[in-house]
Specification:
3 domains; alpha+beta; single chain; Beta-Lactamase; 15 strands
């Protein structure tokens, strides 16, 4: 097993000048890492990130060119980015079949260094002696698998046309950069996964007629569906706003309390009405679950309109109250008798007279209504 080389363990003279007269120091590693990190800040798509990885590796002064291979579904590897070497060479090495020795080397997952001038750290001299490499004038070769989730997902093949022995610092630098490349790809994969989830949910969100909100763990609105934007009339004005802005002003304190209980896991529903942008209030039944949005914990709430249901309940309650008030206002004893049944209900006069002896004139009245 090869022991990773630490730049600090190299000969101090190596940090001043390489054998071919180019300055070479650990400062280059720090500069390359810093520049690569700066590129990532802006957010990259996969193609641009892979180009940045290859360009960063080729900052090493020994290297003249190379390519980045990406694993295919069948386990082979295809060249997706290339720099510095003749197109004819890349045309011949554009695909590494699943069962090829080159693909097997990548799957082993460790850096290989091959030099035409023997060196202790050049552990695989035969790689640089491949006919296709000799024909193109390659004198040194480094193969650097990049693992993501423990799998060799990509690989850098880096060549030198003018150096027969790659410097030890170059090997150490590439091993260090490989860890940064792995982290960048893992971050990209997480972003792509979140984007796919958002895309999958987008169609569902747009189709839902209910009002859907996605909140961060402080109650700020991260996302909402067209039913909110158009149905409630808020457009794009709610992003970043606290959730209580969609409730009536007098309910804001209650909304904060309900939110705190949801975050504590003691509540999964909210009884508060929603407030439309024009001031109209809607009765809703809101259910909330804890999920994830953009890879971060989030609250996902769905509010279903129940305004018509509430109105119907209020109408039934008013009708019942009217009937009771009407019966209680009658000046005579009144009975409701279902067919072939005893007294079922009566007005207040009946309640007052219930303890008295029934009148001889009282007879059971059969009603068919």
């Amino acid at each position: 097993m090869n022991t990773p080389i630490n730049p600090d363990d190299a000969n101090p003279a190596d940090s001043l000048e390489t054998p071919w007269g180019k300055p070479w120091s650990s400062e280059l590693l720090l500069q390359t890492q810093h520049e690569f990190s700066g590129i990532l800040v802006g957010g990259l798509d996969r193609e641009t990130l892979l180009e940045a990885i290859l360009d960063s590796a080729l900052r090493l002064p020994e290297l003249d060119g190379g390519g980045l291979y990406w694993r295919e579904p069948d386990g082979g590897y295809r060249l997706v980015v290339q720099r510095g070497l003749p197109p004819a060479f890349f045309a011949r090495a554009g695909h590494l079949a699943t069962g090829s020795p080159q693909a097997d080397i990548i799957r082993q997952g460790r850096l290989r260094c091959s030099c035409t001038i023997p060196q202790d750290h050049c552990t695989d001299p035969s790689l640089a002696l491949e006919p296709v490499l000799v024909e193109e004038g390659v004198r040194s070769l480094m193969v650097l698998p990049i693992q993501v989730g423990g799998e060799p997902l990509a690989c850098l093949n880096l060549a030198s046309m003018h150096v027969g022995a790659v410097d030890r610092l170059a090997v150490a630098t590439l091993e260090t950069l490989a860890r940064q490349f792995t982290q960048a790809l893992e971050h990209l994969f997480a972003q792509e996964k979140a984007a796919r989830q958002r895309q999958n949910l987008a169609g569902l969100f747009e189709a839902i007629a209910d009002y859907l909100f996605v909140l961060d763990m402080e109650g700020r609105i991260l996302h909402y569906n067209p039913a909110v934007a158009e149905g409630l009339g808020y457009g794009n004005s709610l992003f970043g706003q606290p959730i209580w802005v969609v409730h009536p002003p007098e309910a804001h304190d209650e909304a904060r309390r309900v939110l705190a209980e949801m975050l504590a896991g003691t509540r999964t529903s909210c009884p508060l009405p929603l407030l439309k942008a024009d001031g109209e209030r809607l009765f809703v039944d809101t259910r909330v679950v804890v999920g994830h949005w953009n890879g971060q914990p989030a609250l996902i709430g769905v509010s279903r309109g129940i305004t018509e249901q509430v109105r119907q309940q209020e109408a039934l309650r008013d009708e019942k109250q009217f009937s009771e008030d009407l019966i209680n206002s009658l000046p005579v004893t009144t009975y409701y008798l279902p067919a072939h049944a005893v007294v079922a209900a009566g007005g207040e006069n009946n309640s007052r007279n219930r303890a008295k002896t029934p009148s001889p004139c009282l007879r059971k009245v059969e009603m068919t209504a």
